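hey so u asked for the seq, here:
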Amino acid sequence: MEGGMTAATKWQDWTSFGLGLWLAVSPWVLGYSHLEAATANAAFMGLALALGSHFEVSFDEVAAEWFNLAAGLWLVLAPFVVGFSAEPDVTANCIAVGTGVAALACSAMSLDKEVGKWWHKHQASH
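ran it, C-alpha cells below
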C-alpha cells in the first residue's frame, strides 16, 4: 500500500465514504434543499468526499487523508463562511459530518508509518 497505510485504516475510508454520501443527500432528506448555498456545499463536498474515499486506493493515501482533513475543517467552518449558520439543524449536520471526517482522517494518518516518521523527525528538530 502507498504511504504505509494499513488494512486497519480501511474502516476510516468506508466511514468517510458513508459520511460523504450522507452529506450529499442530506439537503433532500433533512428538507433544506431550498437553501441554495447549503445545498451546493453539501452536494459538492459530499460527492467529493465519497468519490475521494472510494478512489483512495488508486492514489496516494496520505494525500487523500490530508484532503479529508481539509474537507472536514472546511465543513466545520462552512456554515459561518457561506452564510447558513442561522439554520441550526443544517449547521449541526455540516459540523457533525466535518468533525467526523476530520477525526477519521487524523485517525488514519496516526496509523500511517510514513506520517509517523515525518512527525517524529519534525518534533526532534524543535
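The chain has a mean pLDDT of 84. Helices lie at 10-29, 36-55, 61-83, 88-110, 113-124.
lmk if thats what u needed
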